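User: Could you write out the 3D structure of this protein bound to FE2/S2 (inorganic) cluster? I've included everything you need below.
Assistant: Certainly. Input first, then the structure.
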Amino acid sequence: MTYTPEMLENIKQVEATRSQRLHQTFPAMSLEERTKLLNTFHPDYIKESMREIRIGVEKGSRMPNELADVVEGRPHIGADFDLSQPEFETDVLIIGGGGAGASAALMAEEAGAKVTIVTKLRFGDANTMMAQGGIQAADRPNDSPAIHYLDVIGGGHFDNFPDLVEALVKDAPQVIAWLEQLGVMFDKTPDGTMMEEHGGGTSRKRMHSARDYSGAEIMRTLRDEVRNRPNITVIEFCPAVELVADKQGRVCGAVLMNLETERYFFTRAKVVILSTGGGGRLHYQGFPTTNHYGATADGIAMAYRLGAKLAFLDTMQYHPTGAAYPEQILGLLVTEKVRGLGAQPVNIKGEQFVYPLEPRDVEAAAFLRECKERHLGVVTPTGQHAVWLDTPMIDLLHEPGTIEKALPAMVRQYKRFNIDMTKVPILVYPTLHYQNGGIAINADCETNIPGLLVAGEASGGVHGRNRLMGNSLLDVCVFGRRAGLTAGRYYKDAKPGEPTLAHLETWKKQRDEAGISTPLRSPILLPDYSRKG
Amino acid sequence: MANQEELIPIYIMGKRYDVPASLTIMKAMEWAGYTLVRGVGCRGGFCGACATVYRIKDDPKLYFGLACQTVVKPEMYLGQIPFFPAKRASYDITKLEPIAATLFTTYPETLRCLGCGTCTKACPQELNVKGYMAAAMRGDITLVANMSFDCIMCGLCAARCPAEEPQYNIAILARRLYGRYLAPRSPHLAERVEEIQSGKFDAEIQNLKSLDFNALKERYSAREIEA
Ligand SMILES: Cc1cc2nc3c(=O)[nH]c(=O)nc-3n(C[C@H](O)[C@H](O)[C@H](O)COP(=O)(O)OP(=O)(O)OC[C@H]3O[C@@H](n4cnc5c(N)ncnc54)[C@H](O)[C@@H]3O)c2cc1C
Ligand code: SF4
Ligand code: SF4
Ligand code: FES
């Protein structure tokens, strides 16, 4: 499973220009150049790929076709589903066992609440576990939360909700300290100084990492801590399929489905935190994805039918460097840290064509332009386009062994397919990576629906129209914690009334009136990859 | 693509299916018609949900791998271990001391390790599991933490261990002890947390929040980028 002869031939071109490129980086684009490139090449700007949502509070706003289908979909249960016998009751119900859900659980429990986390797959089988590159926080002397603020909001095209950005950057150093106290092993120099690198769109080096298992290290530590807390119960393989509110419209529980027996049951809660993550497995425009198996935008669909406001769901993040070869790992992430450490993207002539660390949307669009317009990309045997990412440069720029030390997960991934990325460049192409928007929240993670809090990738506003690397792990910890704190304040006085599924009547009526008769069951819970016939 | 390709026989829990030779075990199961619920998570080698044991026809050896990362081979007999009931101790990390005795009292079975190395052979991350267990027996928390760092907690080591060790749970305890107590503290981090709490950056951030689009854009474009 090594490279084809053509690829090996082409690698010689990349090698030929390497020594000269070591000291020379392609210049960054101006804001005007970025805009022009995005308008022509970014997948979000392809008109036919999105449509207006036909029903609900955001009627008329645009989102990817595949997401709109799910959002407008047919609920699993009807309004007549029996809610009279809740299977269990809890103070705080957390839907989703990723980083946001785990952080929320810890804070809510500390506030005295009885907490239940329900999750679709295993606790921790989540996008959080897959994050490699790192987590941002402005803690070095030459940096400040204000500089971080500018980076975040510029990266987000100045559309971010300012209160959320403020919360993100101001909580950041405290979150790093919190994680350290829980036992997360950040990369440090022997005197304790954090080792921090650039990420796309950062103006200071503030990317904290735990080798290239940053998300895994955070997730497994949070998970371990959750399991140590007697007042948190975790129920796996029981996804939520519907939110339940009382007659006043206050959320008071959810209907869950046992994924193995397919039995539905109701669970009551005083406050619900939705932390279901993103939707990469909807494969917008047919793109492969970096996301975990359960990333199917369930939370968006459930919250929307209950009337939750959404934000920025017309922008998705395509990570510039998804693996393009070999086919077995198509779409999997090649962390941005690879470029952060100095690897340059180059075309078949061995030339640079873009500054390696533009914001992700810009970088991805530049790759698409290089392949589709200039035809200077590699085409693999399966017809997949790709550009080279010159990984061997890293050891030359730093010292031999840097790649193996800093990127063990990456090296292992390629080694499994007999490619030694410390010696030869790798092939990459944009892959569907992140849901920039989601359910609109405020800095306390409240939505427009009482009793419903949202945190993490399922929420929208903090990253505006484009998230920078390292701000999402930060987001899930900052807002996960905030959601937990809000829930911890809230549950004590919450007296939810009689649960009802009346919103499903309204939903059915709206679907009928709009002439929507699609049978697609929503949320879809899992993508369907089984071959039929 | 997969359709014209050469098909090879594999056995999923004993039943034969002919699947394209280039697929990973996970994709081959789906190609065979399975809808996976257990034994799948990240699909990228990070979560450990897809631990798989296999054997090749006429070869007595057992092999171990991650279904999402291993390509099928002809005559492969597959079994999955999506869940393993290894022991996990409950503890309050804030009340522990980062010393050998903590490992031994939290996991007394640590000292029962026979040093047989079966765990190392089973590890899909190619970790020296026996080695980190030896370090655990010596009470060397730092070494356990570093040697086990790439563990994805798949459970294969524990599934194979004749001494019934929960290696990966011992390892995460060591890593958390290291991260919390033994790793050198970062002075600049603590300072910054204090500065933020004292409100040092509030005015500047309020000012940024009050800027209109053009002013903000200007400030953004004028940022100095650290080399
Ligand atoms: C490969 C990869 C690399 C990344 N690298 C970085 C990085 O270096 N830095 C960075 O900052 N960010 C990175 N990100 C982004 C970041 O990891 C995620 O955005 C973030 O972790 C999301 O956390 P979350 O808790 O919101 O969602 P997740 O971690 O995805 O958790 C969602 C949880 O909800 C569960 N769930 C879903 N639907 C339901 C339902 N209906 N009922 C119950 N449970 C449900 C899921 O099973 C899962 O447990 C990366 C993402 C990926 C995929
Ligand atoms: S398999 Fe068990 S007994 Fe053997 S070396 Fe590993 S931990 Fe020790
Ligand atoms: S040490 Fe054990 S649990 Fe960890 S990856 Fe290796 S086999 Fe899996
Ligand atoms: S599915 Fe997560 S490691 Fe294979």
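Residues B 113-119, 129-130, 133, 160-163, 165, 167 surround iron/sulfur cluster (ligand 2) (CB under 6 Å).
User: Perfect, thank you.
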